[in-house]
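User: tokens in, sequence out, please.
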């Protein structure tokens, strides 16, 4: 039962079992979750930050369970890291602009794949912490770029 619950969490309700590009599927779940939380539960960026912080513990636990069960350092099916990392660009983006959702998605995936410093170092942290930390940093980089675009170029993001 414990492993089944961990699997649901770590794979983000099985999105991680998408045959091609499970990380992209996980990021898409993150975008959808932000949209639903904002438009139906009236979440603000502050609420999203709280949500990410509150779910970090269960996400790390679930990731560690799958790492142990599969005996793989970073199983591809674990996408809860992408879901949480994808939520972070929305800390600086407008939740009411459709273009913000697209830009947040593209920027997060770019930083997640590129892994610039220190993203590349964070993934070397042990077990579930390392799996999740690099995606959180990629999300913060994307949030920073959106912040710059909004505040220095005055783009409606």
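Assistant: Sequence out:
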């Amino acid at each position: 039962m414990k492993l089944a619950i961990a699997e649901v969490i770590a794979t983000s309700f099985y999105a991680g079992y998408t045959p091609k590009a499970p990380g992209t599927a996980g990021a898409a779940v993150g975008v959808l979750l932000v949209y639903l939380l904002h438009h139906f539960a009236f979440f603000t960026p502050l609420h999203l930050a709280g949500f990410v912080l509150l779910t970090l513990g269960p996400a790390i636990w679930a990731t560690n369970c799958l790492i142990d069960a599969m005996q793989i350092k970073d199983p591809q099916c674990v996408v809860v890291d992408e879901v949480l990392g994808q939520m972070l660009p929305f800390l600086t983006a407008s939740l009411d602009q459709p273009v913000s959702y697209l830009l947040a998605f593209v920027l997060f995936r770019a930083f997640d794949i590129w892994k610039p410093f220190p993203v590349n170092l964070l993934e070397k942290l042990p077990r579930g912490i390392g799996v999740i930390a690099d995606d959180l940093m990629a999300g913060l980089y994307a949030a920073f770029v959106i912040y710059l675009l909004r505040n220095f170029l005055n783009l409606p993001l």
